[in-house]
Write a structure and sequence with these properties.
Helix content: 55-70%
Number of helices: 6
Order of helices and strands: HEHEHEHEEHH
Strand order of the largest sheet: 3-2-1-4-5
Largest sheet: 5 strands, mixed
Mean pLDDT: 88
Distance between the termini: 35 Å
Low-confidence stretches: none
Number of strands: 5
Radius of gyration: 32 Å
Structural class: alpha/beta
């Protein structure tokens, strides 16, 4: 009986774990649906800003002439939570593949799960707690802005002029390195013969355009990364639930087998008792 109760307890425990995993799976599904709307909207915003940027820089590209020896900074966007497969592992492997080419590049790591993989990397100059849901992205952006301002003050002599992001791209389905600053200057001749009319001086307009672009681009990148994270978490949860269901099937078979053995033993005891009662000699001996 004790063995059967042990199996039953284990079976109930698996059921509780399955319920938790199912809840996490449903939360990932809800987050994916939200992010799908946010990401499509942000992509339209980015398309509009990039169109303005290309039009402006076609005539004022000289305002972005920067030295080639500027300090580079990479923002690596990982996850705050686990249970998302090899999401952070792929990011780490991508950085390892590019390490020899960018030995002096400064790194800002976002997400505690990813930071654990960079614990011994001397190039990491800052780290930020990441977001778990889309509503927390704004908080992450505020912390990142504070970090960037602090680093600009810290590296005055070797100014940070090139900022890039390393993240999971939801459209390309892989890890990408995207340059954020400076803005990309068009190489082709402008479509219009006349520069755009501005209400500000070109340097002031470029400064405000850069701020708007960086803010919008980081929103899109965070949405894209979180979308991939939740897709991978959804897949991870589905695989885990599938394995649990297999374990439940095996436990159910084991439970049935143990119960069958107990029933057989009970029948044998009843038969032996019946034989003893029907034996006259056994009855005489009892008298």
């Amino acid at each position: 009986m004790s063995k059967r109760l042990e199996i039953k307890t284990h079976f109930e425990t698996l059921g509780e774990i399955k319920g938790i995993l199912s809840a996490m799976k449903n939360l990932a599904l809800l987050e994916i649906r939200k992010l799908d709307v946010f990401l499509s909207t942000q992509q339209r915003v980015m398309a509009s800003i990039e169109s303005v940027s290309q039009d402006f820089l076609s005539f004022h590209g000289h305002l972005q002439s920067l030295p080639t020896d500027l300090q580079q900074l990479w923002i690596i966007i990982g996850s705050e939570r686990g249970f998302c497969g090899d999401f952070n592992k792929v990011l780490y492997e991508f950085m390892q593949a590019h390490e020899n080419q960018n030995d002096k590049t400064l790194l800002v790591v976002i997400g505690n799960q990813l930071l654990a993989k960079f614990s011994d990397n001397a190039r990491v100059v800052a780290d930020i707690n990441s977001h778990s849901v889309s509503e927390e992205i704004q908080v992450t952006l505020l912390h990142l802005a504070e970090i960037l301002n602090r680093l600009q003050q810290q590296f005055k002599r070797n100014k940070i002029g090139r900022i890039s992001a390393v993240y999971h791209d939801a459209h390309k389905k892989n890890v990408v390195l995207q340059q954020l600053l400076p803005l990309e200057t068009p190489q082709e001749a402008p479509e219009s013969a006349y520069p755009p009319m501005l209400n500000l001086k070109p340097p002031q307009f470029l400064a405000q355009l850069t701020d708007h672009y960086l803010y919008a681009a980081l929103h899109e990148i965070f949405y894209s990364s979180l979308m991939v994270e939740n897709h991978m978490r959804l897949k991870h949860m589905e695989n885990a639930i599938h394995r649990l269901e297999k374990n439940e099937e095996q436990l159910q078979l084991q439970y049935n087998r143990v119960r069958q053995e107990e029933i057989i033993e009970e029948i044998e005891v009843i038969l032996l008792s019946a034989e003893a009662l029907s034996d006259p000699q056994a009855s005489t001996l009892r008298l």
